[in-house]
Sequence to fold (340 residues):
Amino acid sequence: MSTPDPAFDAFLDRLPKAELHVHIEGTLEPETIFALAARNRVALAYPDVETLRAAYAFHDLQSFLDIYYAGASVLLTADDFHDMAAAYLEKAAADGVIRAEIFFYPQTHTARGVAMATVIEGLGRALDEARAKGMSCDLILCFLRHLSEEDAVATLEAALPFRDAFIGVGLDSSEVGHPPEKFARVFAEARRHGLHVVAHAGEEGPPAYIRSALDVLGVERIDHGVRCLEDAELTARLARERMALTVCPFSNVRLKVCETLAAHPLKRMLDAGLAVTVNSDDPAYFGGYLGANLRETCAALGLTRAEAVTIVRNGLAASFVDAATRAAFLARLEAAVAAG
Ligand code: HPA
Ligand code: ZN
Fold:
């Protein structure tokens, strides 16, 4: 066990950070799920918050996704989406997040009869309010990879009237059996519209999925990517290309991608020269937000201040912002580091 180091934790808390891998539906706390279920008269399969929370004992990605989609079923109105995002953005700001790139899953909602406009209007309103308070934030639309590419194409089409409301597309949900190349056409279409592209790859899926995310989809960042370490040549390429990997330590432990935080591959990834970042993924389900992920992972792996700063710097550097904004973020980080 690592020894708590309050001074190190306080230092980490003060650093300005980017969060590049958070699913907004994964920020829905159990209490909020029950409050929204009551507000919208949606029936839940769990009698109370404690029973729901007790069900958060996952053995793999799919066992999590099944509960996660059930939780998201309480979201119906633009206010629901707004309130969920506003609650996340407030917590992120308290963790020192100055840049948030937030995934949302429209197919989970449109399949239940919620309009794309409702989802985007509610989320967008919360982001506008956060921007007014000084946060830099944007949305990334994610396709569900267990559904067909045709469904993803239809989703992109339905979202394009709101093109200014999101900056990119991503790919998530059940990874194994749904390789990136299944979505080659829709990603090409997204790139034609000037959207950024990212994909979950190498979480449960093999290193080959990371390669096809890069070579077929043309992604600019890999979400998770921890299994790259099984392939030395791929690891060397990712390091050489400075490809950012949005690693989510609490998620990896809770979904059994690794056994414990102390056994997490993050330190080995850093040592391999990879551009790793730390993120929360689905913080309401995996035991904590960005600050907690960073503090506990640094402690469990015995990372130095310099290593922690490298991780935070990687996140700011991999943000989808213009060069001047990125330089300003990095200058804020260096100032915070210099202040100790
Ligand atoms: N992987 C795949 N799908 C997801 C995840 C994840 O980590 N979080 C939410 N949906
Ligand atoms: Zn994720």
About this structure: The chain has one domain: 6-339. The radius of gyration is 19 Å.
